[in-house]
Amino acid sequence: MKSLHTIKINFKGGIISPGDLYNILVAVRRSGVLYVRFGLRQQLLFDVAPDEIKKVGSALDMLGVGFEINNDRFPNIVSSYPAEEIFITHTWLSEGVYKDIFDGMDHLPRLKINVSDSNQSFTPMLTGNINWVASPSAQHFWHLFIRFPKTNTIYEWKDMVYTNDVARMSKEVELLIWKHAGKFVDNADASGDELYGMVSSGNYITKPVGDRLQLPSFNLPYYEGLNRYHDKSWLGIYRRDELFGVEFLKEICTLCLQTKVGQLCSTPWKSVIIKGIEEKDRPQWNHLLAKYQVNVRHAANELNFQVEDNCEEGLALKNYLVKHFSREDTRTFGICIGIKMREKSEVFSSVLIRRKPLFKIGRIGFLYFYDILCARDFNPNERTGFVFSRYNTKFLLPEQLRRVINAFYTHQAKNFSQPEGKSTKKETDRKSEKKEYVHQCKYCLSVYDEKEGEPDKGIPAGTAFDQLPEGYACPLCEAPAEDFMKTEKIKLGLQPI
After folding, report:
1. Is residue 487 a part of any domain in this protein?
2. Closest-CA residue to 257 (of 18, 7, 5)
3. pLDDT above 60: residue 423
4. Domain that holds residue 308
5. Residue 390: closest CA among 463, 483, 316, 459
6. Measured CA angle at 492 (ends 490, 497), to 5 deg
């Protein structure tokens, strides 16, 4: 069997013109493609046979559509626009503001850029490298969070930036990061203050940040079905196997054009949202769903999973776990479960299931086990946290997940009952604390904490890093100890829950 090639097409911010999408679908259908998918970064993905690559590439070139083959050198720009009006209300951020920013992007970013409203958690806020979060109080100003490439080091910019300058500053920041890659790429000690000092701040309209931005608690809305909002309706479509039939999507595009719906949106949950459906047109949309036998009422505990793009094994594990959740009637509201099967990938999650082999021969792994990791405070926007359990077999995963979900609800209850003002320490208190350090693998970002050790590997708590056994290797990617970097603990946001 010939191997397939994956073609990726970016739609800035997940905003898709039905006319453009229709033309793309016609071109790919002529190359034998029956199904397409939408990725975690709101991009379009489809697989093409080797002997059809040239034909489909020529067709996309004629349409003026940019694409990549088996590559993601230019990641898509992610935005919370799909949630605007339906999940995000009472905010100054509107369709026009998003589009002004995207129109100003005159370069192809090699870093991941996220553009998000601060009043939602439907769209991951800090999974990019250049993360713009709309100010909840200062209209047309944006907070900026830099997550340095190949690290979990996040720096909050000292100034808010005016909407009209977001695109230009994104370009300058990216150019500086690549120009000084030794300082800012794959360096857990990258200095945000140093990068801040390099930017020509006088060229932009800015305001001092003042108080640190408080990110919202994670709350995933039910994002499928035909639902009313204001005097119109929106339709969310999720597919269990992530596959959208080309003919089905072509009819969606046609109906959008016939009913004067100017766009559809792809979401970071690999689903599609159509907004602005008039009441008189609802029967046509229901008829289209019925014609293709598309179910839009899946259980909520299935919708809150994040799986890597193009990952059949991850989908199979997700379906296995969802069956256990359904059988046991397990509540998962408020939690996002990610599945990571590959070493070099990123998944947005409150709880991450990370597969790893017991041993490898070359690049082939054998006897796979699973670690369960949790984000700090179980908030998926907080990139790091702690390991809940290691070396689980697939058989044990449902029970271990049940336990971590119980820990999540216990943590929620504790926060709910805590007196206001005592949940977090003041910044001045943190500065006076003694600095603590951990050692982080520079490849997969796994952490060795001397306080915790690795008891499951015979390394007791309190074992200093320089006293680790000879031949110690990263438990995830097997990098040797010399490839670990000493890093200040607070920079990674590590704290027990």
Report:
1. yes
2. 18
3. no
4. 301-417
5. 459
6. 80
Q: pTM of the prediction? A: 0.83
Mean pLDDT, to the nearest integer, of 349-378? 88
What is the residue-wise DSSP string for 276-323? EE-GGGHHHHHHHHHHTT------HHHHTEEE-TT-HHHHHHHHHHHH
Q: Of 376, 394, 417, which one is at a domain's C-terminal end?
A: 417
Distance between CA atoms of 38 and 273, rounded to whole angstroms? 12
- Two structure tokens written together for 330: 């397990």
Mean pLDDT (the chain, rounded): 89
Tell me how far apart the terminal alpha carbons of the chain are, to the nearest angstrom.
49
CA distance linking residue 258 with residue 424, whole number of Å: 53
Rounded Cα distance between 338 and 266, Å, is 19
Residue 225, phi then psi, degrees to nearest 5 = 100, 170
Burial 338-365 (b: 16+ CB within 10 A, else e): bbbbeeeebbbbbbbbbbbeeeeeeeee
pLDDT mean over 250-258: 98
Q: Which two tokens stand for residue 396?
A: 């044990």
Of the residues 387, 417, 447, the one at which a domain ends: 417
**Quick check: 420 pLDDT over 60?**
no
Q: Which residue's entry shows tokens 């493609």?
A: 33
User: What confidence tens digit (pLDDT) does each residue in 220-229 have?
Assistant: 999 999 999 9
Taking the C-alpha atoms of residue 207 and residue 162, their distance in angstroms, rounded to an integer, is: 8
State how many domains the chain has.
Answer: 4
Residue 329 lies in a domain: yes
Q: How many CB atoms lie within 10 A of CB 367?
A: 9
**Statement to judge: residues 48 and 105 lie in one domain:** no
